[in-house]
Amino acid sequence: MLSVFRRAVLCRTQVDYLSLHAAHHFADPVSYKISALTSAGVNFSSISSLWKKKNPTCVYSQKSYLSSTNAYSTREYHAQVSKAFMENSRVKITLAPDQELSYPSAWLRENCQCSACFNATSLQRAFILDKPTEQSKMKSVKVTDSGALEVIWSDRHQSVYDASWLKEKAFTDDARKRYKNLMRIEPIPWSREHVIAKYSYDALMRDDEILLRWLMELESSGATLIQDLPDYPMASQNVLHRVFRSKVTHYGEVSHVIVRPDANNLAFTDKTLFLHNDLPFYIDLNVLICLHMVKQHTSEGGDTVISDGLMAAQHLQRDHPCHYELLTQTDVYFCDMGSPTHATEKQNFHKIAKYPVIQLNNTGEVMCIRFNNHVRDSFTDIPDEKIDSYYKALSTYLNLMYKHSITFKMENGEMLVLDNNRCQHGRTALQGPGDSTRHLVTSYLAWDEVLCKRRRLQNRFI
Questions:
Q1: If you average pLDDT over every residue of the chain, what do you get?
Q2: What is the DSSP letter of 111?
Q3: pLDDT tens, 25-56?
Q4: 133-136 long-range Cβ contacts below 8 angstroms, 24+ apart
Q5: How many CB atoms lie under 10 A from the CB of residue 302?
Q6: pTM over the 0.85 mark
Q7: What does the longest C-alpha to C-alpha distance in the chain come to?
Q8: Are 224 and 199 in contact (CB under 8 A)?
Q9: Which of 79, 252, 262, 304 lies at a C-alpha separation of 20 to 30 Å from 2?
Q10: What is the CB neighbour count within 10 angstroms for residue 453?
């Protein structure tokens, strides 16, 4: 049987930090686990800062963070249907003791759970609702002896729906919020006072609970720092392979960021890299970026700068709505073209993509940020009379990014992992007379696989 701690800690699917009162129920096991996590490298001060932003009137404690739960889990439901009746093209039920729910008949027919309509091993629908008006006509409904809902359709097909399944799939705000949080943990924007959560390489490699906590932190804050990686360039791949395989780009499975005389990317020079997102010239930008410092520049320069584009976008929308509209509604080209200059690069490349700098989803939420001055194409479809306004919008957004940024110098054996969809990173110029053999290894991990791994770990521990 799983420990009380695991049920309390790992059922979470969002960093909403609710249920503060639950802390005292788990005092001893949580105190023990906090000690273990802290010694393994988990930085709870980062979590504390996020807690205070989300709950400014609450006092943060490590125990309350670990003990709070707001999970998406069908196992939390022990429902029974107590009443059911038809009303027009809907079925209305009462779940004991008194929760009233309503379901469209077409939806119920499409989601029949019988073996002819639903394959239980693949968890996929084997039925298609190609004549919805005819197929969703009901003959009768009733509550079974086991507290399930039974529907007899006009063609005499029988469907039985478990009460817990009905509650899980309910057409309610709570059910939709739970499923949305299963899909993706809500991001929490941060500014320059944010403390980056730190994790131990050894702990991530051996402990799946800490691996889960790391993945959840990446979804919520979009920035983590892994410490004490082994002293060889491919060590980052050990961490990535705990989740999935790294995403291959035209720079290879990994990219060795070193100063090259024949650089095919500005990163391979000693020049300043302004805050930017990687790979904006790819159609699929949905990745984590992993920056492993193998050997740091020993003189001045080479500092890392990071910023949360979500925070900057919020300020841009609030204080400069016209600039925000331009950057969300105007498509621009991003281009990367060149030839291989390193053994990891296998072929000539010429990538072009066209998207707005700030890409929104259908509900107006920021879905993806493609800010990269280095590879934004000089060719543009923007009318010449709007160019000045567009440049003002870009510069305003960049200034906000720097205003809310964090600067630090990475040490050998550290790996910075960022959500490339929202966080920007940059580098100060490398200056002499120090050792100029700075060596950073860059790799990418697809967000689809990261989210998949987090859900699988939650399913395992719930």
A1: 86
A2: T
A3: 223 333 333 443 443 344 444 444 443 344 33
A4: 135/106, 135/109, 136/89, 136/104, 136/105, 136/106, 136/108, 136/109
A5: 21
A6: no
A7: 85
A8: yes
A9: 79
A10: 18
